[in-house]
Write a structure and sequence with these properties.
globular, binds zinc ion, 362 residues, 7-stranded mixed sheet, 2 domains, 12 helices, Quinone Oxidoreductase, Chain A, domain 1, Rossmann fold, alpha/beta, 25% helix, 6-stranded parallel sheet
Length: 362
């Protein structure tokens, strides 16, 4: 049976919560982690954010899930052991792990610190590691990760609120930097006000930008402006509002993963404006070439960020007090949390209090 194989595959005992099939239901799971290798950092997991990717992969929405599946790629904890060749970390350090635990280290992307675009990168959860074993994520009591893929959590950032930065944070920070949407005084739009969108608003404000939240639901207006610090709010279904806002934005970060029209968003861009998609919409979209040609506009994408940039992002967040809004929940609440996340019933990110959840079998 797979579960018992996982338990004795490696020497280090580990405990987490796993989905066993596409029902996505998570339950206690005994497995194992490798010994701390020369360049490995072992850490006790304290907190782990719940990302939309976790929800998709527990239910095998993308058809490539490996069961048992332990999700979690917004992992924060305290170092318990380091390998003999580890240079950056020592026991007791506060660290985190995001989307990736390995890459090829030699392709053009890897050489340029863009491990996130390495074709051989290995995901933290539900992937095959270099030794052929399955990677298990941070809904578990411990992690063992090569130091290259470990992030230092800066002082002054609460560990629970730091967790979502490791995926959601860098996913919105990276496109702002790459597409040059980080210059003070610029005006950007943020489409969707969920786990990604609310952090995008906070990073944009920290960069000194003017921010307009674009949403289908007018009832998010007060929240966006009063609590998250956005400057204005646009209801995307209100054609008068959309018309009045035409050609006012330098860029748009579109975080929505449900199918939606991007044509009206392009209309909001000034000449040379950029629309960046980070939401993973599966259905092909319609696009009028002339809406880009006239005004030299651009539609692009972006996927998380490299390790160097992830460190830069979290240091920036600590310095500028960018903190995700979180709801901390115990591990045994995780199935309810997943259901609520599917209905967007969370403000704005669940974070599992992993360390304070008792193990049932020990
Ligand atoms: Zn994620
Ligand atoms: Zn590579």
């Amino acid at each position: 049976m797979e579960a018992s194989e996982a338990e004795f595959e490696h020497p280090r005992k580990a405990f987490g919560w796993a989905a066993r099939d596409s029902s996505g239901l998570l339950s206690p799971f005994n497995f194992s982690r490798r010994e701390t290798g020369e360049k490995d950092v072992a850490f006790k997991v304290l907190y782990c954010g719940i990302c939309h990717t976790d929800l998709h992969m527990t239910k095998n929405d993308w058809g490539n899930s490996i069961y048992p599946f332990v999700p979690g790629h917004e992992v924060v904890g305290i170092v318990t052991e380091v390998g003999s060749k580890v240079k950056k970390y020592k026991v007791g350090d506060k660290v985190g792990v995001g989307y990736l635990v390995e890459s090829c280290r030699s392709c053009q992307n890897c050489v340029e610190n863009l491990e996130n675009y390495c074709p051989k990168s290995i995901l933290t959860q539900g992937a095959k590691y270099t030794d052929g074993t399955t990677t298990y994520g941070g809904y578990s009591d411990s992690m063992v990760v090569d130091e290259h893929f470990v992030i230092r959590i800066p002082e002054g950032l609460p560990l629970d609120a730091a967790a979502p930065l490791l995926c959601a944070g860098v996913t919105v920070y990276s496109p702002m930097k790459y597409y040059g949407l980080d210059k003070p005084g610029m005006h950007v739009g943020v489409v969707g006000l969920g786990g990604l969108g609310h952090v995008a608003v906070k990073f944009a404000k920290a960069h000194g930008l003017k921010v307009t939240v674009i949403s289908t639901s007018p009832n998010k207006k007060e929240e966006a402006i009063k609590n998250l610090g956005a400057d204005s709010f646009l209801v995307s279904r209100d054609l008068d509002q959309m018309e009045a806002a035409k050609e006012t934005l330098d860029g748009i970060i579109d975080t929505v993963s449900a199918a939606h029209s991007i044509q009206s968003l392009i209309g909001l861009l000034k000449s040379h404006g950029k629309l960046v998609l980070i939401g993973g919409i599966e259905k092909p979209m319609e696009l009028q070439a002339f809406s880009l040609i006239i005004g030299r506009k651009l539609v692009g994408g972006s996927l998380v960020g490299g390790l160097k940039e992830t460190q830069e992002m979290i240091d920036f967040a600590a310095k500028h007090n960018v903190k995700p809004e979180i709801e901390v929940v115990p591990m045994d609440y995780v199935n309810v949390a997943m259901e609520r996340l599917a209905k967007a019933d969370v403000k704005y990110r669940f974070v599992i209090d992993v360390a304070n959840t008792p193990k049932p079998n020990s």
